[in-house]
# Entry
Amino acid sequence: MATPQFKELRRSYGFDEVAIVPGDVTINPDQTNIDFKIGNFTFSIPIIASAMDAVTDVNFATLISQLGGLAVLNLEGIQTRYDNPQEILAEIAQVSDAEITPLLQKAYSQPIKENIIGERIQAIKQSGAVCAVSALPANTKRFAPIATEAKADILVVQSTVTTARHTSRSLRGLIFPELCQSVAMPIIVGNCVSYSACLDLMRTGISGVLVGVGPGAACTTREVLGVGVPQITATIDCAAARDKYLGESGRYVPVITDGGFRKGGDLCKAIAAGADAVMIGSIFAQAKEAPGLGYHWGMSQPHPALPRGTRIKVGTTGTLEQILFGPASVTDGSQNLIGALRSAMGVCGASTVQEMHNAQMVIAPAITTEGKSWQLSAT
Amino acid sequence: MATPQFKELRRSYGFDEVAIVPGDVTINPDQTNIDFKIGNFTFSIPIIASAMDAVTDVNFATLISQLGGLAVLNLEGIQTRYDNPQEILAEIAQVSDAEITPLLQKAYSQPIKENIIGERIQAIKQSGAVCAVSALPANTKRFAPIATEAKADILVVQSTVTTARHTSRSLRGLIFPELCQSVAMPIIVGNCVSYSACLDLMRTGISGVLVGVGPGAACTTREVLGVGVPQITATIDCAAARDKYLGESGRYVPVITDGGFRKGGDLCKAIAAGADAVMIGSIFAQAKEAPGLGYHWGMSQPHPALPRGTRIKVGTTGTLEQILFGPASVTDGSQNLIGALRSAMGVCGASTVQEMHNAQMVIAPAITTEGKSWQLSAT
Amino acid sequence: MATPQFKELRRSYGFDEVAIVPGDVTINPDQTNIDFKIGNFTFSIPIIASAMDAVTDVNFATLISQLGGLAVLNLEGIQTRYDNPQEILAEIAQVSDAEITPLLQKAYSQPIKENIIGERIQAIKQSGAVCAVSALPANTKRFAPIATEAKADILVVQSTVTTARHTSRSLRGLIFPELCQSVAMPIIVGNCVSYSACLDLMRTGISGVLVGVGPGAACTTREVLGVGVPQITATIDCAAARDKYLGESGRYVPVITDGGFRKGGDLCKAIAAGADAVMIGSIFAQAKEAPGLGYHWGMSQPHPALPRGTRIKVGTTGTLEQILFGPASVTDGSQNLIGALRSAMGVCGASTVQEMHNAQMVIAPAITTEGKSWQLSAT
Amino acid sequence: MATPQFKELRRSYGFDEVAIVPGDVTINPDQTNIDFKIGNFTFSIPIIASAMDAVTDVNFATLISQLGGLAVLNLEGIQTRYDNPQEILAEIAQVSDAEITPLLQKAYSQPIKENIIGERIQAIKQSGAVCAVSALPANTKRFAPIATEAKADILVVQSTVTTARHTSRSLRGLIFPELCQSVAMPIIVGNCVSYSACLDLMRTGISGVLVGVGPGAACTTREVLGVGVPQITATIDCAAARDKYLGESGRYVPVITDGGFRKGGDLCKAIAAGADAVMIGSIFAQAKEAPGLGYHWGMSQPHPALPRGTRIKVGTTGTLEQILFGPASVTDGSQNLIGALRSAMGVCGASTVQEMHNAQMVIAPAITTEGKSWQLSAT
# Structure
C-alpha cells in the first residue's frame, strides 16, 4: 500500500514567540544607520504610519515627515469624504459603543470627493513632507490619475490580500506592470505573506511590498476567515523573496512589515527577521497628534454583511516624537521605538538595517512565568 | 544492546493552532462555487445541521433546506418520543441547573414511537426539503426500514466512534456492506478520525463519512475517556483516506467534519484541511429557529453510570439565515459563515471546495498576545 | 573547528498534552478484561490506592480489595504511630491553615510502633483483603521482617526516587536482589521515570515498578528540586524497559503509573501509554471512606529544612464504589474510572490492558479554546 | 529554481520549560560537594549575589561570604555615591509609586566618589570576606585601578551585553586581554548568551563569564529591545563554549548563570544545564539583611530616554541563611536553595557540580494543568 498523502502544515512564528540573540560584536547605538529607501526617497527612520483614519491625516503626515518617517493617507477614508473631517472624527470618538457601528457605516457611506483628494495631497506637499496615498486595487485606476495630478510622491495599493494575479468578473482587473508603466511614482503593494506571492508582486515592477495578513490569533481576518500568517514567518518569507528577486533582477525591493506591533521589541524583531521598514497603526493611534483622538478602528469600508474590526479605545500616551524618540514616559516599550531599534542593533553589532537582517533569532515562547514577577537587568 | 522501542506520539492540530495562507492568485468571492454533493443530492452550501435535539426539528430541517443546506433529524431523540416535543423542549429550557439532569434522564427514557418517526419524515418531505435521519449503529436495523418506508432521503449512522468492524456479544452487529445493499438511500457513517478507520468505512460502500471524536481538550470524550483527535489533523487524515479511496475505486466519498466549530474561521480551516462539508451543532443552537430555545445539550441517551454532556445556555444570536449569510450583527465570526467561506476561498484563489483543499496552511498557535488588544486590518 | 557539543533536551509529555486515537475496530466495553497481576495475585481492576495517610487505612484497604483493587498501607505514616489514628486525622482536618504545618510536624514526630504495624496488617488480612504495605528504602530492612511476620502479602519500597544503586554513608544500603531473596512477598519498588533506571530495578528481581517523579509543573518535586518527568513520557519509557526486560528474562514486571491523575481520561491515557495499573491518591482522598476526611497532604515525613507538600482541601465527592464504578454524580471525569477505562478500551478495540498498550496516541495540547464553551458529542 | 533561503530560527528553552531526569544511581545529598572556584578562590556554595543596590552592600557581602558564597558590590550604584547610603535606600523604600522614577533618577545622578569606593572595599575585606566589585565596561579603566589599590579580590565587568569586540566612537574601547594583563585579580565578564560570544570572551583570558540577557518574556530587555535568550539554552550554549575552551586551552573558565531565578528548582536546572554557579538577585532582595528593605529595582543608571526596570515590592521572606540553608518557612521553593541543590544532585547521583552537568534533562512545558490542584508526593 502506498504511503497516504497527508496535507503538510508548516510551523509559523509571531513576535511573541521569538527573540533576538546578541551578536559576537557590539557597537554603540549612536553609530547605527537606520535609513530606509523607497524609489528615490530616503527616510532617516524605517517607519511608516499606516493608512488608517485614526492615524494619518494631513497634520500627522507632515509631522512624521519632519521626524524622518512617512505616513500614508487613505484616499478612501474619512479624509477624502469630508471637507471638515474633524467633525466626524470627534463624533466617532464621542458616541457610545452601541452607536458606533451605525455611525461608522454612515461615516463611510459618504461619497469620496475627488477635489478633496487633491486638496489633501497638496496640503501635505506644501508642508514639505513626502506624500504617500493609498487606494484599494479595485479603485486604483480611478484614484491614481488624481494622485498623479496632485503630485503625490508614492502610491500605495493595499487590500487585505493583494496578488499579482486577481480574477474578477470585470473584464480586466488591475495589472501591476501596466500600472507601474502609467504611474510615475514608486508603487508599494500589499498585503502579502508568502514567498511566492511576494516574489510575483516584485516581478511586476513595483517598488515596495507590505507584509501582513491576519498576523495575530485575535485578528478579525484570522477569526472570521481563518486566514493569516504570524508576522515573523511572513517577514522571513517575504525577505527571502526580496533576496531572490535581488539576485535575479539586481533591484532591491524593500519589505515593509505591516501590523501587529505593540512595542519596540516587536519592531526590532521584524527588522531582524528581514523587514526594511515597518508600518505602524495602533501605536501611532496613541499619539497626541493622531486624528483618532485616542480611538482606533479598522474598516475603511465596513462591509454590511461581514463586519470586521470595531472601535477600540487605545488612549493617548504621548507625542509622536516621544513615541519615536522618547523620552519614554511608560515602561511597556511602546515609546522611543527608534531608541529601542538602535539599541537592539547595537547589541547585535549591526550598523545598518541590512546588517540587522543577519542577526540570529531564537524561538523563545512568550508563555512562561520565567522572571515574570521581578525580572530586572543589572545594568 | 538493542535500541529501546518507545511508543511514538504524533503531533496533532486543532482549529486554534492553524491558519490558512493566502494564495498566489485571488478571485472575487462571488465567483466561488461551494456546492456539496452526497449521493445524487447537490446542496448549494456545504453545511449540515447536526442530529441534536437543540438544533434539528422538522421546522429547522425545512428552513436550512430552503437556504441550500441539510439537517439531520435524530430518530432517537426528543422528536420521535413525543407527539408534541415543544412541551418538553420548553421544559428543558426552563428548569434550573439542579433539575436539568433528572429532567433529561426522564425526557429520554420515554419510548421512541415508530409512528412519530414516519410523521416527522413526512413533514420534512412535504416541505420540499431533503430529509436526512440518524440512528445509532445498534438501532439502525430497527429504524432503517421505517425511514425507508417514510421515504427519507439520506440515512446517517452515527455514534461517538463507529468502525467498519465492531465486536459485540450479540451474534451479528451492523454490517455496513449489507446495510448499503438493503437501504436504497445514501448512507453517511461516523464518527471516525483516523486514516485507516475512515478508509475501512469508505470501502464498505457508504456515501459519506463524519469526522470528529473528542476534538477539543475540554470535550467530555477527551476529559472522561482520554480519547480524541483535534479536528484539523482528523480532517487531514480522513481527507487523505478519501483521496486514497478515490484512487482505488473511482468513487468520491465526501468527508464531513463534525464538531468543535465556533466561528467562520474554523469552518474555513476545516474546508482547507480537506473537508467537503461541515456538520454544525452549537452555532446553529444559537439560531432563533433552533428548537433548543437558546440552550444546547449533548446526550440523546444519557448513560446513567457515565454521564457526559450537560445543558449549556448558548443564547440566541440571530436567524439561521443571518448565521449563514449575514448581515453579521456580532463581530465574533459566528455569523455569515458562508460569506466568510467565500472570502477565504477568494484570497486563496479557490473557485471550488476541492480547490480550497489545496490551500496552504501554517501552524500558528492561538496563544499569543500578538495584536491581542487592537489588531485591526487596514482595508 | 569541531561542532560544539550542546546538551540535548528531549521533549516529554504529560496527560494534558496527549490523547488516544480510536482504533480501526471497536468492541463493546463489557467485553474488556482489565485484570492486573502482581506476583501470584490477580486483581480485577488495575487500580492501587497510594500509601498516603489521607487515602489508605485498614478500612479503605478492605473496601478497595472487595471492589477488586488494592491499597498500600504506609508503615511510616499516621496509622502505625497512633493506636487511635482517627483522633489525629480529625485534628488534621480541623485545624486552620496557620496551624497545619506545626501539627503535621508534631503528628509525624511520634514514634512508629512495631506492634501497631502488626495489628494493622492483621486487621486488613482478617477482612479477607490482600495486604500491601510500604516503607522507605532506608527503613525497609527494619520493617520488612515485621511485615513478613504479620503475613503481609505485598511489600512496596517507595521514595521520591529509588534506584537499584544508591550510595550512602552507611556501609551497606538496601540491596534489592538480597531483599528479594530474603522476603517471600512480591516487591514493588519506586519511584522511577527513565528507561535505564527502570530496567535496572527490574533486573534486581522485583515484581513491580512505580512510575512517577514530579509529573506536573506544579509538583513540589519539580518546583523545589527542578526534578521530574511528565507521566506519559515516564510511562512510555518504563513500559519500554518492561518489554525489554520481558524479552531478556521472560518475566513480565508490571509498570504502575503513580501520581498526577485527576480524571478518567488521565487513567486511560496512562494505560494506553503502557501502564499495567495506576496508583491513585488525590482522587481517592475525595472518597467518603477516605481517612483524610476531605483533606489531602503529601509528606509522610516532613523534612524540617525542606518542607514539601501541604494540606489541601479536596472535598468529598462520592463513595469509593462510585468513584470506581459510577454512577457518576459529577461531570468532571473523576468518577466511574473503570467505566471510562472500559469505554476507552472499547473504542480502541482493546480487549485487555496489554492490547490497550497498542492504542495509537497523538500529541494534542490542552491549551486551546477549541470547543471550550459548548463542545458536546451527538451520541 | 533554487530553494529559497529562509532565515532559520532555533528553539530555545527557559527554566519553566525543562525538568531534570533522576539518574540511574542516587547518592545521599550530604555526600555532594558543591564547591565553586574562581581564580584561586574556592567557595563552598556556587552562589553569587548580584551587583544590584537592593541586594549587595558591605553587610550583605560580609554575611554571604561567611555562609560560603560571594557578593558583588556595584561600584556605580548607591553604595559609592553616598557616604550614608542607608538614607537614600530608606527613601526609595518609602516613596509612593508616583514618586519613584524621579527619585531613582535623582539618586543615581549623584556623582560616584572614589574615596567611598575604597572605603567600601576595605570594609568588606576587613570583615574577612572575599571582595568582588563590578563596573560597566566603559568605566572599567577608571575604576579598576581604584579597586586594585583598595585590594579588591575579584573584578566583575558587566553590562546587559558585553562582547570581546565592541566598536564605539572613542578611539579605544576596553580591550580584555590588556585588562587581564594590567589587573592582578580574576576578572568575570558578562553578560553573554551565545556559544561564540562566550568563547570569544574566554579566549581573552578572563576568569569567569556571566550568562543571561533578557531571559524571560517579561524582561524589559526582551520587551523593549526584542533581545534575549531563555536561560537554559543560554547556559547550555555557554557551557559548550567552556568545554570547547577547556579542550583548546586546558583552562576551566566557570560559567555563571545570572538572572531569572525564582526558586530552588530553577537553580538546580541551571546547574544541570551546565552552570558552575548562579548569580541571584531577586530572591536575595527578599532577605531580611538585603539593603533594598523589601524592594528591588533594576537600573543602576536610569537612561532618561529609554527607562527600563522599575521598583518592585518583593517583600521580606526570611534571613539569608534561611534562603540558602533553610529551614524553609515558605513552600514556594524560594528558601533552602542549597538543600534543594544537594537533593537534586542526590537523585541524579551527582557528587559534584561538574557531575551534575551530565544529568539528563527533558523539555516539560510549564503550561499544563497536570496535578495542578493537589499534586503531592508520597514520600
